[in-house]
Amino acid sequence: MLEQYPNSLKIVFKNFPLGFHKFAEPAARAALAAAEQRKFWWFHDELFKYSNALSTEKIFEIAQSIGLDIQKFAADMTSPPIKQRLAADIQAGLKAGVQATPTVFVNGWQLKNRSLESFRTIIEKELKKSGKDER
Asked: Does 92 lie in the same domain as 40?
């Protein structure tokens, strides 16, 4: 969708670690710590490859494999700003009615069907409302 609407779309990612997943919260803090070194998406993608086998060791292994400064990464993972950012993401999710992950919104509309056609339909609708039809 970003390729089709490069001037109109922006992705905003919010963390919403689910309590039943033992490593969801540490993984979310780790991703935010990776973002401090401009490697959020790289780290994010690697985390999801190992989502069923996460551990503290695996989180640090991923960090090392993508070239993060491990000392900075470890410090950032437990820093107050990272914890506050995660708490703010969780509160935003609760306020928006998020109950599961992933949850996707387009201009405040939650997509129940996350097919490409569903994305395209709501994006087109929102672009027409705003007068910014890119096509």
From this structure: yes
Note if the bond before 81 is cis, omega within 30 degrees: no
Range of the domain at 125: 1-11+99-135
Q: How far apart are CA 41 and CA 32, in angstroms?
A: 10
Token pair recorded at residue 120? 């395209």
Residue 124 structure tokens: 């087109």
Please provide residue 106's backbone torsions phi and psi, each rounded to the nearest 5 degrees.
Answer: -125, 115
In three-state secondary structure terms, 67 is: coil
CB count within 10 Å of CB 81 equals 10
Q: Contact at 8 Å (CB) between 68 and 28?
A: no
Task: Count up the domains in the chain and report the number.
Answer: 2
pLDDT in tens, 49-65: 998 899 999 999 999 99
How many Å apart are CA 119 and CA 135, to the nearest integer? 15
Q: What is the pTM assigned to this prediction? A: 0.84
Q: What are the backbone angles phi and psi of residue 32, rounded to the nearest 5°?
A: -65, -35
